[in-house]
């Protein structure tokens, strides 16, 4: 009997390890999961202004290790380095999935005004670029609004998940900046709103606790 397929997940924060392991077991129960964690990437991107070329060599090396171990698919668990996936996939001929690719497709499908809410500045541009590329591929025009949730990432890496969630929710709900600036979208026109709702129910928040990867076919 052949071994179950192996999925390798490359993390940049320990906060995503348990979550992705659980989600993959729920959605692809026959798979085995291999975790690779490098928690030095995000601090480096914060220091160098988001230059992903600086981390490409070692991230490429992680994909090579996954391939050597027999992985059938690599899942990149970090939006900040999502742009690395396509060139590495072409090089190795191994599927390398961006964690936010399905999110972008769904956002473009559902809305024309889209709020990009991130807990790290290094995530805003890659996520915005992905949404714009996805919209262009779908021949759809979109308008993006960017919001950086100050202090949320620091709370997360400090072990305070509740404060992280509260800070993000405050940006999205109630009197938060996103609601103030996109008020007509949030809560009144659900078909034109890509991401509004309860944080714990249906938001994708980068580096948060409940990422929603798309379906994985092995």
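^ Assign residues to that structure.
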């Amino acid at each position: 009997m052949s071994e179950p397929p192996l999925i390798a997940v490359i993390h940049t924060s320990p906060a995503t390890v348990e979550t992705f392991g659980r989600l993959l077991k729920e959605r692809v129960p026959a798979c085995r999961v291999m975790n690779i964690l490098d928690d030095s990437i995000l601090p480096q991107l914060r220091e160098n202004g988001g230059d992903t070329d600086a981390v490409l060599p070692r991230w490429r090396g992680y994909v090579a290790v996954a391939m050597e171990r027999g992985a059938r698919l690599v899942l990149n668990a970090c939006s900040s380095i999502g742009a690395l996936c396509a060139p590495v996939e072409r090089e190795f001929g191994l599927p390398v999935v961006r964690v936010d690719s399905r999110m972008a497709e769904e956002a473009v499908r559902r809305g024309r005004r889209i709020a990009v809410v991130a807990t790290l500045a290094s995530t805003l541009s890659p996520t915005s670029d992905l949404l714009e590329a996805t919209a262009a591929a779908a021949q759809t025009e979109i308008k993006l609004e960017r919001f950086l949730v100050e202090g949320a990432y620091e709370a997360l890496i400090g072990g305070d998940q509740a404060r992280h969630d509260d800070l993000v929710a405050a940006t999205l709900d109630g009197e938060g900046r996103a609601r103030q600036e996109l008020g007509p979208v949030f809560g009144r026109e659900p078909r034109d709103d890509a991401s509004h709702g309860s944080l714990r129910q249906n938001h994708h928040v980068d580096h948060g606790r409940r990422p929603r990867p798309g379906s994985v076919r092995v």
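The two ends are 17 Å apart (CA to CA).
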